[in-house]
Design goal:
GO molecular function, one term: quaternary ammonium group transmembrane transporter activity
Strand order of the largest sheet: 1-4
Order of helices and strands: HHHEHHHEEEHHHHHHHHHHHHHHHHH
Number of strands: 4
Oligomer: single chain
Number of helices: 23
Membrane topology: Multi-pass membrane protein
Strand content: under 5%
Organism: Dicaeum eximium
CATH class of the largest domain: Mainly Alpha
Shape: elongated
Distance between the termini: 24 Å
Family: Belongs to the major facilitator (TC 2.A.1) superfamily. Organic cation transporter (TC 2.A.1.19) family.
Subcellular location: Apical cell membrane; Basolateral cell membrane; Mitochondrion membrane; Nucleus outer membrane
Number of domains: 2
Length: about 525
């Protein structure tokens, strides 16, 4: 009986069939990255806003004021001595006898700054009321922290998806969980767009994150499992589509003025992926681990046919594993020495890559400027990362570029922290080098993670380790902004230390260049 890898070589390791499946599943990267970074535009600043004094709406209607006139008469007096009028309002009664031109006339123009004030609770007025979730759900002033909470909730959804759907994909099949996840992302995305309040928004944002993680991780594993060992750089190429989503997102946000429109634009395409039911098969590797050899062989014959190849008619069964089928368990990832070392190092690498990656992205955004252009450039910076990996990974292996990506990022962060402020172009350039380097490390960890786990545990192992990525994403904004309040460059020092440690640890991982994907735990122990 031939092994799976022998049959795959005969059917074609990266022929027309695999290229089609790869291209189709890669589109998932565009929608997932748009979801991942959407808070930048869903939660953008709503422009000018102020607190409406009780009774202002009635007087506005009677006097026929525009919003600008209402603001001039009822809010701008606060700007003299008492504040901006965004989070506080005048706690006074209207002087209706003075007419519409000066409702606060009884207090005198010179004494406005000494008028009593009251905090604004739920009566804000926005120049752009539906531009973002900030204006939609009043996430301003004392509620501003809820915007950060919305992103943390999304990352919690990613975390839940890594555990729940990663386990489900190993137990019930890759393509089934992928299709169910696509359906979930689309439905939850629509509900998020029309949420009546922030509570409903948060609940379905969490669920959309959970299903979104299911689509991304499962499509990645399917692509990795249907190609030969010499073609697994497709795991890096698929990251380019993630970057394309980052580049496309600001264009979508620029053309669509409302946050609901942006939310629908990044959610509805997931329904199109349901059509893959008819063109993307189940992973034959997974079928073999579930003792479904006939189905796997049928799929392999179909792959060979589309690739213009021919499998021997004498093949009646494919061997892949002598292990009994068992449901994946967390203990399986740490039960043996090599699996345990791989798991712990990969968890740290995921956590570090995500924390530094998101931290550097947010740090570049602090400098201000054109939001759409800055975001586009920050995404374009990631494209050379994939190209550098493709050029080097099959020549010098995985481990050295993985380590160097972290080490260079560490050095770049450290240098950026101590560069003087009067040469901002140099600080930005070095910080961008750090962003490029950590992107290289971030993209390699996807590939290495899938190559270091056996087929029976691959989806679960990748999902569990990558859950640390989501934990890093939750911590990143709090770490960045709290440490920056102490010293602006302190986060860069922390990033530098974390990256340096990661660069040394990944050198302890086995090299997987040109090696067939492990099928059993014993295969991993022998790497």
């Amino acid at each position: 009986m031939p092994s799976f890898d022998e049959v795959l070589k005969e059917a074609g390791e990266f022929g027309r069939f695999q290229k089609r499946v790869f291209f189709l599943l890669s589109q998932t990267g565009i929608t997932f990255s748009s979801l991942f970074a959407s808070v930048v535009f869903l939660g953008r600043a709503p422009g000018n806003f102020w607190c409406r004094i009780p009774g202002a709406a009635e007087l506005n209607e009677r006097c026929g004021w525009t919003l600008e006139e209402e603001r001039n008469f009822t809010v701008l007096p606060l700007g003299n001595e008492s504040g901006s009028g965004e989070c506080e309002r005048l706690d006074v009664a209207w002087d209706t006898s003075a007419g519409c031109s000066s409702p606060l006339a009884r207090y005198g123009n010179h004494s406005t700054g000494r008028l009593p004030l009251a905090p604004c609770r739920d009566n804000w007025v926005y120049e752009q009321p539906h531009a973002s979730i900030v204006s939609e759900y009043d996430l301003v002033c004392d509620n501003a922290w809820m915007l950060d909470l919305s992103q943390a909730i999304l990352n919690l959804g990613f975390l839940a998806g890594a555990f729940i759907l990663g386990y489900a994909a190993d137990r019930y099949g890759r393509i089934l969980i992928y299709l169910l996840s696509c359906l979930g992302v689309g439905i939850c995305g629509i509900i998020v767009a029309f949420s009546p309040n922030f509570t409903v928004f948060s609940i379905f944002r969490f669920l959309q994150g959970m299903f979104g993680k299911g689509t991304w991780m499962t499509c990645y594993v399917i692509v990795t499992e249907i190609v030969g060992s010499d073609q697994r750089m497709v795991g890096i190429v698929i990251q380019i589509f993630f970057t394309l989503g980052i580049i496309i997102l600001p264009g979508i946000a620029y053309l669509i003025p409302t946050w609901q429109g942006i939310q629908l634009a990044i959610s509805l395409p997931n329904f199109l992926f349901l059509l893959y039911y008819w063109v993307v098969p189940e992973s034959p590797r997974w079928l073999l681990t579930r003792k479904k050899g006939e189905k796997a062989l049928k799929i392999m014959r179909n792959i060979a046919k589309h690739n213009g190849k021919f499998l021997s008619p004498h093949y009646s069964e494919i061997t892949i594993s002598n292990e009994e089928v068992s449901n994946p368990s967390c203990l399986d990832l740490v039960r043996t020495p090599q699996m345990r070392r791989n798991t712990l190092i990969l968890m740290y690498a995921w956590f570090t890559s995500a924390l530094i990656y998101q931290g550097l992205v947010m740090r570049l955004g602090i400098i201000g400027g054109n939001l759409y252009l800055d975001f586009f450039i920050s995404g374009a910076v990631e494209l050379p990362a994939a190209l550098l990996i493709i050029v080097t990974i099959d020549r010098i292996g995985r481990r050295l570029p993985f380590a160097m990506g972290n080490i260079v990022a560490s050095i770049a962060c450290l240098i950026t922290a101590f560069l003087p402020e009067d040469i901002p172009w140099l600080k930005t350039t070095v910080a961008t080098l750090g962003r490029l380097s950590i992107t290289i490390a971030f993209e390699i960890v996807y590939l290495v993670n899938s190559e270091l786990y056996p087929t029976t545990l691959r989806n679960f192992g990748v999902s569990l380790c990558s859950s640390l990525c989501d934990l890093g994403g939750i911590i990143a904004p709090f770490l960045l902004f709290r440490l920056a309040a102490i010293w602006l460059e302190l986060p860069l020092i922390i990033f530098s230390i974390l990256a340096a440690v990661c660069g040394l640890l990944v050198l302890l991982l086995p090299e997987t260049k040109g090696i067939s994907l492990p099928e059993t735990v014993e295969d991993v122990e022998q790497l």
